[in-house]
Amino acid sequence: MAYQKLQVGLAAVVIKSDTIDIPLESSQQLSGTTTATTADKLVNGGETFTSYQNLIVGATVVNTTDGTIATVTGIDSATVLSLSANIMATGEEYIIYLSPKANASEGCVLYIPADGNLKVKTVSGSEVTYTGVKGGTFLPVHVVRVFSTGTTVTGDIIANW
What are the C-alpha distances in Å from 35 to residues 40, 47, 88? Predict the structure, then answer.
């Protein structure tokens, strides 16, 4: 008897956001630690952001210390980036996913850790809320975003590619 098997090569914890897609784990990345706290900025005195030609407005920034997410809204100088949200403080670690569209056509399948409702954006751009999703299951839909508004599932939702 044949059975269906989910085969993934990458997995990452989803950061829920009403405006930012799930960054593709395999996309080109920069990482570091902030050296100062300034509202809506990422400051790293030891970095040279202007030297990365692939770093563009729209790149996704994940604060890996507290699990928050924002996008780059400006490259202010070699050591400072403007962000869409105030997510960074001194000493916090970050990853910058350089390609903001890296996940746009591929999408991911989600592992759901607990019962609840799940609002997602699919690869085709549809926004839909799945109600009564059971914990311990996979959602067999290619997803690019999990919304924070409308999602009641708790715990770490895992994106699988």
Answer: 14, 10, 10
| pTM as predicted | 0.89
18: which DSSP letter? S
CA–CA dist 71, 141 (Å, integer): 25
DSSP 125: S
| Distance in angstroms (rounded) separating the CA atoms of residues 30 and 55 | 9
Q: What is the pLDDT of residues 96-146, one digit of tens each?
A: 999 877 777 789 999 999 999 999 999 999 999 999 999 999 999 999 999
How many CA atoms are closer than 13 Å to the CA of 48, on its beta-carbon side? 3
Spatial separation of the C-alpha atoms in residues 40 and 34, rounded to whole Å:
13
Residue 150 per-residue DSSP state: T
Nearest CA-CA partner of 121 in 153, 151, 145, 157: 145
Task: Return d(Cα 124, Cα 145) in angstroms, integer.
Answer: 11
Topology of domain 29-97, CATH: Elongation Factor Tu (Ef-tu); domain 3 (2.40.30)
